[in-house]
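Encode chain A's predicted structure.
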Amino acid sequence: MSKIGDFIAWIFICMLLIWFAGLIFSTDKCTRVHRSAWPVIYGMGAVESLSENWVSAGTKLKMLRYKANGAVAMQNVFEKTVYGDKEKCTK
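Encoded structure for chain A:
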């Protein structure tokens, strides 16, 4: 693999480890549910930042809606998978 590919792979691995650490070291169940959406929130934030100068205001609003819907969907999947129907957290 090229040096740039190795660099990107290490960044991805580090981000994944930070996400897992954020999930593991939280003491509250609802905090874990909220943190489960970090990949969606920060991934879409990066896309929004990179495309800021090339997209229209309407597209920015659509991306913001995708980000919010994706974060809530990720939290719902994590909540149902890990805690089942026992725990309900606000989103």
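The CA atoms of residues 44 and 50 lie 10 Å apart.
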